[in-house]
Design brief:
It is a single chain. It is built from four helices and six strands, in the order ββααββαβαβ. Helix content is 30%, strand content 23%. The termini are far apart. β5, α4 and β6 form a beta-alpha-beta unit. It is an alpha/beta fold and 160 residues long.
């Protein structure tokens, strides 16, 4: 069994061969514009447009906590919009991250990764604006993806 590979770099630009799935966490309000999605939108307009349309049509589709949407942006690159945070602000119910929703979305991500024979690339999902703790997210990734043989690379961005 493998393990999560950690590297410093940009998760929107994985430099490995083969099909790649770039995964990130979205909110359930249809908001897009802060955090990792800014980097995604700088490279490709399709994931944001698809997410906004998915949210607009939520009355008649599967949009909601735990859902995942796959958007092909290049011949061998897909973006996974995973709905894993409730709202966008920390309030009386705590931080926006919803670990059970991330867990469910990771299950869908694993299925797609296995179907496409793809590696998965992501920032520390749910731990930026969503306010989550990596110590809670990392075991979910190990359980849902790594244990099923999916290669996962987590990118830490920044100067350090």
């Amino acid at each position: 069994m493998g393990e999560i590979k950690y590297i410093r770099g940009d998760a929107t630009a994985p430099s490995v061969k083969g099909t790649k799935l770039i995964a990130h966490v979205c909110n359930d309000l249809g908001g897009w514009g802060k955090g990792f999605v800014v980097a995604v939108s700088r490279r490709w307009p399709e994931p944001e447009a698809a997410y906004r349309a998915w949210h607009r049509g939520r009355a008649s589709n599967d949009f909601g906590l735990g859902a995942v949407q796959f958007v092909q942006v290049e011949p061998y690159v897909w973006v996974a919009n995973m709905v894993g945070q409730r709202g966008i602000r920390t309030g009386s119910k705590g931080v926006p991250v919803r670990y059970e929703a991330i867990d469910a979305a990771l299950g869908g991500l694993a299925e797609k990764a296995l179907e496409l024979n793809a590696s998965v690339h992501m920032p520390r999902i749910g731990c930026g604006l969503a306010g989550g703790k990596w110590s809670r997210v990392e075991p979910l990734i190990n359980e849902r993806l790594v244990k099923r043989g999916v290669a996962v690379t987590v990118y830490d961005h920044g100067e350090n």
